[in-house]
Amino acid sequence: MVVIKHLYSWSYDRTCQPVSGSLVLRQFCRNYVQAVPRDTTLLRWANLLRLATLHQRHDRVVEMACQHHVTRARKLRIDGTVVETNIHYPVDSTLLGDDVRVLTRTIRRAKAVVCPGIHAFAIRCMPSITCPSADKMIRIG
Predict the structure, then answer these.
(1) Which segments of the chain are extended strands (E)?
(2) How far apart are CA 6 and CA 20, in angstroms?
(3) Which tens digits make up the pLDDT trace of 23-70?
(4) Which end of the chain is less enclosed by CB atoms within 10 A, N or C?
(5) 3-class secondary structure, 133
(6) Number of Cβ atoms within 10 Å of the Cβ of 3
(7) Domain chopping of the chain, boundaries
């Protein structure tokens, strides 16, 4: 389905709609009678592909198209794929919260490694500083 997305320059959402309605595209994607994955699933799968793997797939599709005389492949257009993601803008209060969360997690891991004799329950009951820092984050804005 990623190949079809690139072939027609469709978005992830736009790719799922025609594939679910076309028997030819379902067969090409080897999706036959199964449900077509949603756009979010397709996005996650696309993020799992490494760039080298994606290039190998594209090269194979071009090679097969040349063998079947679908194209002569004299020109190849390269598309820089942009992956959709939620942007976390760096605001002072959120940076403070992120720092506190990461430091707390690191301290818990360090206690487990440095003090292996301490019972796991004692490590979990370590006083949490995330709640007071969350209150301060709200006050900072």
Answers:
(1) none
(2) 17
(3) 888 888 888 788 888 888 888 888 887 878 878 887 888 788 888 887
(4) C
(5) helix
(6) 15
(7) 2-67, 92-140
